[in-house]
Design brief:
Elements (H helix, E strand, L loop, with lengths): L1 H25 L3 H12 L4 H8 L3 H18 L1 H5 L2
Helix pairs in contact: 2-4, 3-4
């Protein structure tokens, strides 16, 4: 019974976390968001992202790194309060 009673709370926490992550991604600048979405959601490799966006490979790599840093900063309280 106790496990069942906690399930709505667990689901709510997961939904809130998911919403925060989506909001943080949406808040990224378009250049950072574009490369991150192609890498994480579309699972393209760096070369494919560079080709799709007509960018140098180094630019793709630096934008993904920058997007990761911005997201980590935006979501750091999620790590502190899981």
């Amino acid at each position: 019974v106790a496990d069942f009673a906690e399930q709505p709370f667990v689901a709510l926490c997961a939904a809130e976390r998911r919403q925060r992550v989506h909001a943080a991604i949406a808040a990224l600048s378009p250049p950072l968001r574009d490369v991150l979405v192609l890498r994480v959601l579309e699972q393209l490799d760096y070369a494919a992202i560079a080709a799709a966006l007509e960018l140098p490979l180094g630019t793709v790599k630096s934008r993904i790194a920058a997007a990761t840093i911005v997201l980590a900063h935006s979501l750091q309280d999620l790590e502190e309060n899981p």
